[in-house]
Amino acid sequence: MFEGFARVWTPVEIAERLGRKPLSVRVAGEDVVLFRSAGGRAGALIDRCPHRGVALSLGRVGPDGCIECPFHGWRFDAEGACRTIPLNEVPPEKRRLHAATALPVQELGGLLWLFTEPGVEGAGEPYVPAALLDARLSRSVLAQEWRTHWTRAMENMLDFPHLPFLHRATIGRNMRRALRPGSVMHVDTTGTPSGMRVHARLDGEDRQEVSLDWVRPNGMVLQINIPGRDLRMHMFCVPVDAARTRMLLITTRSFGRFNPLTRLSTLFNERILLEDRAVVESSRPSEVPEPQEEASVASDRATLAFRRYYLSELKGSRAAAICRRDPTHVGRDPVGDPTHVG
After folding, report:
1. Which residues pair with 214 in a beta bridge?
2. What CA–CA distance (Å, rounded) separates 79 from 67?
3. Which of 21, 238, 258, 338 has its CA 20 to 30 A from that of 291?
4. Could you tell me which residues are beta bridge partners of residue 225?
5. Taking Cα atoms as reference points, which of 242, 279, 236, 270 lies closest to residue 112?
6. Which long-range contacts (CB under 8 A, 24 or more apart) does 289-292 make?
7. Exposure of 181 by Cβ count < 10 A (0-12 exposed, 13-18 middle, 19+ buried)?
């Protein structure tokens, strides 16, 4: 279940898009149904009735907040407990044997967060970037589906060196203007409680125009440093399946609360993602391979650190064994020599 993406918190949907009707989402190859209980609290179940395997998302939510299977009318609450089995005399102790599979879900920062393992033990709490919890900030939201594995999309979001080339007329414009023959970019990474901070210097000059944080497992926060203002882009690369990724982009700002600026922000973000999308979707293989299967250089430090995490902590590939044997391998030490790929 949730192969390569198990036991992690991830946003899966914009909270306001979940209304009275059930909502089906696919996460890492698993179909999940989201719905609201009578009190408005979000619930999440594997989208499969334990009776005959029918999609619960095709059913409806009753006044009591239980979701009803469209096939035979079995009803389940947000914890997955079977509350009703029509046309049968089934005592409560027997109904407990026919529960649906529930998943931990929380509504925070305007997003619905899902923990990719049934049950609540060990789930903890999702790490939600502070700006998403600040109701004083304006926000714009953009969602897209890319034809790629989520790991390629995530590496793209952590990659500074592509900015002056792929985004030369947008967010990489200033960096492009500063390029000289023989320019060198130094990329540094620092561990944080939620993941990693990435810092880039071009030709030794610390411009401090942006700061970038990776939020485990699939989030990125890019803060644009504007004196006296707060502007941040929050990107989440949510795996749909092995070939598709749902990109959720939430931009927060402390200025420009009127609608025209929100629309302009969305249009600008769409342009940036359009520049990224064609390139990322062309990457082969779609899923990031083990480090030694691609050429890497020093400026790839941040993306290789993420790849180490994915291969060793989520996927558990052959690279994980290499990491354990060779502590100088990039998979083991992302702040070591990033060109050493085993």
Report:
1. 196, 220
2. 11
3. 238
4. 230
5. 236
6. 290/317, 290/318, 290/319, 290/322, 291/319, 291/329, 291/330, 291/331, 291/341, 291/342, 292/319, 292/341, 292/342
7. exposed
CB neighbour list of residue 277: distance below 8 Å, 6 or more residues apart: 144, 146
Per CATH, domain 9-124 is 2.102.10.10: yes
User: Which residues in 206-327 belong to E strands, given as ranges?
Assistant: 210-215, 219-226, 229-241, 244-253
Whole-angstrom distance, CA of residue 206 vs CA of residue 185: 11
- State yes or no: pLDDT of 3 exceeds 50: yes
Each domain of the chain, given as residue ranges in start order, spans: 9-124, 132-282
Q: Among 147, 97, 140, which Cα is nearest to 259's?
A: 140
Place of tokens 């089906």: 24
Q: State the CATH architecture for 132-282.
A: Alpha-Beta Complex (3.90)
**What's the rounded Cα separation, in Å, for the pair 144 and 305?**
26
pLDDT in tens, 30-72: 999 999 998 999 999 999 999 999 999 999 999 999 999 999 9
pLDDT digits (tens, 9 = 90+) for 241-265: 999 999 999 999 998 766 666 777 7
